[in-house]
């Protein structure tokens, strides 16, 4: 088992490209052959009609679980579909072993409807800290990587989130109302003010990528599932952005966050969004 941060750094120096290759192969083998080719029996509901899972989700997660643990002996995987089958699996995020956090198809609803706005998300965390992340949008052939302290790149080009243009409305992607409590709805209503243009989010991973590349000013999300956030939050951080919970603290993948939370192109924007959310709450 890898036991210290120095060894993890060595692993990331040597094997980051191998992780990228595994992600690409999973998408090529299990996701893209099913894109716009899904049969009815390959689609199931989980919690409801808007919470879908497909054979692509399951098969890609199985592929990545085998490939990633082979690359890093002693590591474990917390994947969205495995946790759905056995919620206790999620506890590994708080454990001592290095953990791969996997969302095989982030944006399953878009995937099911033939929309290219989906991605595969992989993050590597140690002691509750995300050390590296991989975001792959296979239908767009875009691949973003972030390593803590070493920056973020999209297809080899450094990502810089920059800052919103002064005087322009902030573009903010938010949780869909169907997935928020009454208290969270009130907080999100705080964004319906002059100078802010909120909209419902699509794939969380792609929204984070949009922040990192300076195309979206921020997000305001109301759920904690680490597979949706771990990869993208590091991508935003390493591109120069920031993330804060409702109490003004950074989001923790281990849970217990005050919700909603935000990620934004810079810290000033993150603090502005949190202030508006707090005013709404």
From TrEMBL:
| InterPro entries on file | Inositol_monoP_metal-BS (IPR020583), Inositol_monophosphatase-like (IPR000760), Inositol_monophosphatase_CS (IPR020550)
Hydrolase as a keyword of this entry, yes or no, is yes
Enzyme Commission number(s) from the entry: 3.1.3.25
SUPFAM superfamilies noted in UniProt:
Carbohydrate phosphatase
Superkingdom of origin: Bacteria
Top EC class, one word: hydrolase
State a single Pfam family of this protein.
Inositol_P
- Keywords in alphabetical order, please: Hydrolase, Magnesium, Metal-binding
Record field: catalytic activity = a myo-inositol phosphate + H2O = myo-inositol + phosphate
In Swiss-Prot or TrEMBL terms, this protein is called inositol-phosphate phosphatase
Q: What is the lineage of its organism?
A: Bacteria, Bacillati, Actinomycetota, Actinomycetes, Kitasatosporales
